[in-house]
Write a structure and sequence with these properties.
- Keywords: Membrane, Transmembrane, Transmembrane helix.
- This is Manganese transporter.
- The structure is a single chain.
- The chain is mainly α and 403 residues long.
- The protein has 20 helices and no strands.
- The chain has one domain.
- It is 74% helix and 0% strand.
């Protein structure tokens, strides 16, 4: 009996400690949406419809794309670091290829290998130029042909930029000696995830995702599945399914119940021990939640902006069209994938032209810029500024050619 009481007390203490750790500024996001819905009832309808749209038109397709990509990655067990080491003369195009892959894993590997002295400055520039980060999943899920074209463009521009800058500056430009960076890289690659893996919630997440995929397909071909439910159609069951699924992603993200994608280097480094790497399902859930949150933010910014101001944001962007490639390139300099997902979402909604998307895709470095800034800040800043040159050329070239 005493042992049972002690175990119960310990369980309560663990739950209390978990609760204290889970509370953060992120919780204010869903709470703020609920308060806004309560204060402005008409806004509540917009929030429900927008979150449902983000989930059914984006999240389920992103999850499917992630399953395919991460599944192939595990199936073929590609060792990116070994690939770079075995082909020194081809490091620049190989780095560009790894950067063009959706997500930030390949780019993070190249950054750490640059600090370790295994690849040159040209490879660093190539990977930062070619990578589109997690925004690539969104583009690939919604417009796969456009996504593939952007990936190919990123690879080509990254390879050319890498070779040119390596010819100008040399392989070892702005790099510290290998022994100065190894300790920091080793420590960075073993950073623990700060999230908690709650399998029960992951199961609920998957249960919502399955019918979400089923309903997302007819929505994608411009059908209205709410009407299939007869007398229940007035309750909009499919819309509510999307809203609940989107809120599940938002709540898991806000309570740190899933880790940010690519933010732990161990998750992205194929050299780590198998037991140190997250499961396929965990990575899919984590990354889908992250993308979903930023897509919801972009959708709500657009819809609520129109509602409260009455402005036609599409017309506003059209007026400032000549500046949109420049603004998109400047946004690309921001570290992280969140702002880049917003740019991609604005393109998918028709608010900004293809030229802005291309400029942002070339200039943005995704999450790979975080370890680069931590391990080689001067080289990271110079390399990311260099990516702005081809980004402006491509962005404005597309603007004048495509309109």
């Amino acid at each position: 009996m005493t042992a049972a009481i002690l175990a119960a007390k310990q369980g309560l203490l663990d739950l209390q400690q978990w609760g204290r750790q889970a509370i953060s500024w992120r919780v204010l996001v869903p709470v703020g949406l609920l308060l806004l819905s309560w204060r402005f009832p008409e806004v509540g309808t917009i929030i429900i419809d927008t979150i449902s749209e983000a989930y059914l038109q984006v999240s389920v397709f992103v999850a499917g794309t992630l399953i395919i990509i991460y599944g192939l990655e595990r199936l073929f067990r590609v060792d990116s670091a070994d690939l770079l080491a075995r082909h020194p003369r081809a490091q620049v195009p190989v780095a560009a290829f790894l950067g063009a892959l959706p997500g930030c894993g390949g780019a993070i590997v190249v950054v750490t290998q640059y600090v370790n002295g295994q690849v040159g400055f040209g490879a660093l520039v190539a990977v930062l130029t070619a990578t589109m980060g997690d925004a690539a999943f969104l583009l690939l899920a919604q417009e796969p042909l456009t996504g593939m074209a952007v990936f190919a463009l990123g690879m080509g521009v990254g390879t050319i930029s890498g070779y040119i800058l390596e010819a100008i500056h040399g392989r070892d430009f702005m790099r510290r000696r290998s022994d100065e960076g190894e300790a920091e890289v080793d420590a960075a690659e073993r950073l623990p995830a700060r999230s908690r893996d709650v399998r029960g919630l992951r199961a609920v997440w998957m249960m919502l995702m399955v019918p979400g995929v089923v309903m997302a397909v007819p929505i994608a071909i411009q059908l209205e599945p709410n009407t299939w439910f007869g007398p229940l159609a007035e309750f909009r069951p499919v819309t509510m399914l999307g809203f609940v699924g989107g809120m599940a992603c938002l709540l898991m993200w806000s309570m740190y119940l899933s880790s940010d994608p690519g933010h732990t280097y161990a998750a992205a480094n194929p050299n780590d021990r198998r037991e140190d790497r997250p499961s396929l399902v965990s990575r899919v859930v984590n990354d889908t939640n992250f993308v979903t949150v930023w897509v919801i933010a972009a959708f709500l910014m657009f819809e609520l902006g129109v509602h409260f101001t009455g402005a036609d944001l599409g017309a506003w962007f059209a007026v400032w069209a000549p500046l949109t490639p420049l603004l998109a390139v400047l946004v690309g300099f921001l570290p992280g994938c969140g702002p880049q997902i917003i740019v991609t979402t604005l393109y998918l909604t028709g608010a900004i032209p293809m030229a802005a998307l291309l400029g942002n895709a070339i200039s943005n470095d995704g999450d790979a810029l975080f370890p680069a800034l931590a391990l080689a800040p001067r080289a990271a800043l110079v390399a990311t500024l260099y990516t702005g040159v081809p980004a402006l050329i491509v962005g404005y070239g597309a603007y004048f050619l495509l309109g």
